[in-house]
Amino acid sequence: MVRLDSKIIFSKLGHITGLEINTVLQNGHTYFGKIKSVTSDFITLSDARSHLHKIAISDIYEVIYDKEDVKTFDPAVI
Fold this sequence. Notes:
- The chain is built from two helices and six strands.
- With 78 residues, the chain is mainly beta.
- It has one domain: SH3 type barrels (Roll), CATH 2.30.30.100.
- The longest helix is centred in the first third of the chain and has 5 residues, at 9-13.
- The N and C termini lie close together (10 Å).
C-alpha cells in the first residue's frame, strides 16, 4: 500500500484516471472510488454506485492505494 500526503497528490496522481483509491479526510471520513480527475485544488472520485465526489485537496489527510494497481497506469508513480 502507498500513502500519499495531500501536498503531493497532484504531482503523483494528476495524470492518472481510473485508479481505485481510499481518500482519508482531515475529519476522519473516508471515500473509496476510482479517480475521475485530479487538479491542484480538487480530486474527483466515482464511487461503487457511480456517484461523483469532488473533494478539496485541502480537506484531504492522505490518499491510499495499492502499489500493484498503479503499475498498470504508470510505473513511475510508485
